[in-house]
Amino acid sequence: MIRLGLTGSIGMGKSTTAAMFTEAGVPVWDADAAVHRLYGPGGAAVEPMRTAFPAAVTDHVDRPVLKAIIAADPTALARIEGIVHPLVAADRDRFRPQTDLVVYDIPLLFERGIPVDATLLVTAPPALQRARVLARPGMTEETFALILSRQMPDREKRARADHVMETLEMDATRLQVHALIRYLRSHA
After folding, report:
1. pLDDT for position 147
2. What is the mean pLDDT of the chain?
3. Contacts for 21-28: CB closer than 8 Å, 24+ residues apart
4. Pick the CATH number of 2-186 from 2.30.30.100, 3.40.50.300, 1.10.10.10, 1.10.620.20
5. Does this model's pTM top 0.90?
6. Which of 4, 28, 29, 83 has its CA 20 to 30 A from that of 36?
């Protein structure tokens, strides 16, 4: 099985590209979806987070409250990551579909050094990235800047990626996804 790590900074088209792999019949594991499951009612992160951050937990982890805690306490993010990242890794390790190709959609793929067989970076020009992100409900310039400060710069990700795909236009991106699937399967 080929494990393709899909990554890209915020607003680069990663979720849209992941959906294109799914449409093409390739199983996709989504790190963000895993965190949502872990934070949801009965999720494996709820009790550890309740112990560490009781104000942020009811029957689930309240992400807006957690965001406020992170803003107020510079040590909070590292403590949260210490709880959540091992749980996300365990969730990822349990994802083993019986197929020749699987995609792992991981925003912090390079930052965390996640082992995969090949990497795909989706990217877009900075102006397009900014426009996409600021069009999201509730997004501000400050939040966008904070998120970018926590992510590896796009130029560094480009240097590390095995494959780079610009997500300028949907049909062109879909063609690139199908071409990459064919390439990976022919080189397995």
Report:
1. 87
2. 95
3. 21/103, 21/177, 21/181, 24/177, 24/178, 24/181, 26/99, 26/101, 26/102, 26/103, 26/181, 27/95, 27/97, 27/99, 27/102, 27/103, 28/102, 28/103, 28/104, 28/105
4. 3.40.50.300
5. yes
6. 4
